[in-house]
């Protein structure tokens, strides 16, 4: 969903050329642009669509003008938003036997952890993996056990995970200096000075992973709310990750690239944009261990975190109303009126509830409940995910095809081989890969506007050109590209945001029976935080019931 007015001023061809050149990291000529627009270039055979979140439905929120509700129903609790946070809240309420309805503007639940499928594979539309949970994160471990992903504990108390849910080998590779190396930390052709700087950095992250503050909490933890409030660590939120790296004397081109990659991966923005606290948290917040996997291994599925959504959905399936745009939430004494627009029937409806949980992105919650402080300081990284169907991935020199495949200094984050986790006897007839691009080339408002205005043919060119960096002539093998644009993909932890006033104020609605639950409220966007926020809001409802 896009919160800004993307239609105010038409974009010219020159604007598009400039934007495409930024993404490509090179020049796009007018000739190439015309050939691509008119499907006369070498990519003309590639089919597909842009599937983005329902921007048009979302825009109705901004436009307003809904007629008074035509129908009224009653329920104990309404949850607005069926992303991971909303579904987590639904699960908790269901386990307590509390009746609820869950409304989402999209035709399908899951938010940016939703998944899709075609004849050959299922695939993620956004989130694709869950790192091993921290051992203190009991709620999440319990969820994984319930879902059959965690099968038990060894005698030392370490979780044992289902082997088919752990990322299969080979896990990661990096295309650097003309060949693929194992792992994403640059090694191939890296000089001794750089290698030792990288080692020093990783050792520092190990220190930050286990150090505790004066309040005896881990300096960096997941959920973020469990992290230490000790100023010696929280002050790292005042400066950018890039500034901190400079202050600490980390001068290595390869390390700088790797950290930009990591920050773009988790926050959709590089080290110059996110805070040092957030940059360090990427490494130090994760302390997961398992009896049958190394600490850096991840849990993943062909449909990415869609697997977790599928599990959560079991608790809400009969309570879910999709295509239902919540447009107004009004406190009314000890009740709350939740007004929504039924996109299919084109009617407006009201639910009168005892409680409401807003599991919508914070900028949306502020529109729904005008008493909330405006979402100033909440900056969102736009994203693009492309699911690409091709005959096969061509072999190239070095380490073999892995689950995660990244190009050193590429503008995208590379691609995930969604089918690596499938348990088929025979290789599927077609391969499906998921390609990730944080749209961080311009300020988010501009990026969002340009990205939503480009045609499918333009994206096909940009995506295929990027893949050609490591796989020459791969365009001949590509059949279809399904493009997903996430206008407000992830909250961006810019300096001062995680420890700042805006995030603190956003935690409470100011009403006893309205609760907020979205990963935005953690300041970083990962499944664990969405799950935590959903559970927290549901616990508040339960304590009042
Ligand atoms: C491209 C991408 C890749 C990611 N990769 C990973 C990953 O690999 N691992 C990981 O842990 N995390 C990842 N994340 C982040 C992760 O997906 C999120 O943190 C988490 O899923 C967010 O869940 P949520 O419920 O907080 O919010 P959302 O997913 O934003 O859910 C909010 C829901 O509210 C609905 N909604 C909005 N407005 C209204 C309205 N007015 N009325 C009704 N419904 C409304 C939306 O349709 C949506 O379903 C990724 C995110 C993106 C964008």
From TrEMBL:
UniProt xrefs under PANTHER family: AMINO OXIDASE, PROTOPORPHYRINOGEN OXIDASE
Pfam families from the UniProt entry: Amino_oxidase
Origin species: Chitinophaga solisilvae
InterPro entries cross-referenced by the UniProt entry: Amino_oxidase, FAD/NAD-bd_sf, Zeta_carotene_desat/Oxidored
Superkingdom, taxonomy of origin: Bacteria
GO molecular function, one term: oxidoreductase activity
Lineage: Bacteria, Pseudomonadati, Bacteroidota, Chitinophagia, Chitinophagales
Sequence ranges assigned to domain Amine oxidase in this UniProt record: 85-542
Positions of transmembrane segments: none
Record's protein name: NAD(P)-binding protein
């Amino acid at each position: 969903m896009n919160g800004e007015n993307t239609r105010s001023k038409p974009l010219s061809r020159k604007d598009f050329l400039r934007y495409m050149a930024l993404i490509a990291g090179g020049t796009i000529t007018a000739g190439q642009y015309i050939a691509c627009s008119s499907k006369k270039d070498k990519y003309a055979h590639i089919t597909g669509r842009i599937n983005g979140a329902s921007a048009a439905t979302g825009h109705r929120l901004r436009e307003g003008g809904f007629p008074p509700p035509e129908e009224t129903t009653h329920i104990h609790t309404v949850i607005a938003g069926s992303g991971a946070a909303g579904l987590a809240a639904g699960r908790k309420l269901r386990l307590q036997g509390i009746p609820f309805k869950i409304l989402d503007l999209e035709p399908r639940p899951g938010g940016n952890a939703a998944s899709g499928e075609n004849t050959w594979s299922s695939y993620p539309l956004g989130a694709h993996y869950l790192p091993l949970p921290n051992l203190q994160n009991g709620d999440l471990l319990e969820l994984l056990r319930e879902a059959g992903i965690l099968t038990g504990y060894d005698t030392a108390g370490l979780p044992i995970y289902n082997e088919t849910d752990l990322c299969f080998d080979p896990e990661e590779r990096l295309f650097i200096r003309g060949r693929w190396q194992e792992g994403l930390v640059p090694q191939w052709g890296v000089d001794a000075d750089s290698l030792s700087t990288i080692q020093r950095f990783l050792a520092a992250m190990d220190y930050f992973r286990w150090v505790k503050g004066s309040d005896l909490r881990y300096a960096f933890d997941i959920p973020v709310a469990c992290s230490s409030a000790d100023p010696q660590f929280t002050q790292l939120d005042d400066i950018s990750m890039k500034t901190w790296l400079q202050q600490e004397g980390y001068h290595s081109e390869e390390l700088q690239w790797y950290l930009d990659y990591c920050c773009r991966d988790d926050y959709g923005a590089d080290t110059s944009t996110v805070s040092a606290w957030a940059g360090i948290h990427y490494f130090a917040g994760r302390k997961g261990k398992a009896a049958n996997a190394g600490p850096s291994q991840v849990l993943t599925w062909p449909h990415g975190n869609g697997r977790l959504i599928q599990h959560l959905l079991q608790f809400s399936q009969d309570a879910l109303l999709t295509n239902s745009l919540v447009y107004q939430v009004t406190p009314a004494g000890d009740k709350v009126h939740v007004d929504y627009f039924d996109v299919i029937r084109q009617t407006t409806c009201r639910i009168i509830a005892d409680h409401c949980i807003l599991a919508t992105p914070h900028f949306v919650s502020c529109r729904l409940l005008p008493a909330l402080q405006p979402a100033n300081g909440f900056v969102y990284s736009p994203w693009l995910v492309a699911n690409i169907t091709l005959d096969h991935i061509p072999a190239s020199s070095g380490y073999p095809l892995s689950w995660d495949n990244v190009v050193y200094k590429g503008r995208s984050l590379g691609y995930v081989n969604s089918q690596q986790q499938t348990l088929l006897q025979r290789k599927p007839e077609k391969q499906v890969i998921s390609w990730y691009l944080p749209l961080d080339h311009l300020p988010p408002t501009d990026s969002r506007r340009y990205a939503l205005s480009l045609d499918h043919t333009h994206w096909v060119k940009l995506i295929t050109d990027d893949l050609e960096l490591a796989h020459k002539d791969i365009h001949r093998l590509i059949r279809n590209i399904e493009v997903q644009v996430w206008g407000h993909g992830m909250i961006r932890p810019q300096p001062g945001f995680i420890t700042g006033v805006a995030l603190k104020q956003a935690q409470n609605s100011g009403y006893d029976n309205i609760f907020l639950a979205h990963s935005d409220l953690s300041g970083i966007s990962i499944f664990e935080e969405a799950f935590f926020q959903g559970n927290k809001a549901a616990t508040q409802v339960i304590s009042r019931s």
